[in-house]
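note to self — DONT lose this again. spent like an hour looking for the file last time. sequence + predicted structure for the chain T wanted, 110 res
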Amino acid sequence: NLAVSRLKRIARRYQILLMIVAHPNAEGGRETDIEKWSLYNMAGGAVWNNKADHGIVVYRPDTDSPTSYVKVAKSRQHSVMGKPGIVLMNYRFPLGTYEFARPFKGDAPA
């Protein structure tokens, strides 16, 4: 908690983007419904949910498929960064990037 606060302070002071990657905790790792995922599903979840200005969850149920769910689980400044929501994106293996596939409508990837 203290480390995250200090990192945020440094990021604000130097006006840099700070991204921290966290893996799911044991319980969260078993969750397969992207709508139920939250920052609490990450190891140390309360810290991520309380301290993060923005929280993004990326879930790829089939590692052989490029289709991924990308969920903005938290956004403190909706007018600047948009509202929380879910989209389907395709991971482009050769480039290591994502491209928009379609909005999430509560259904499985097409």
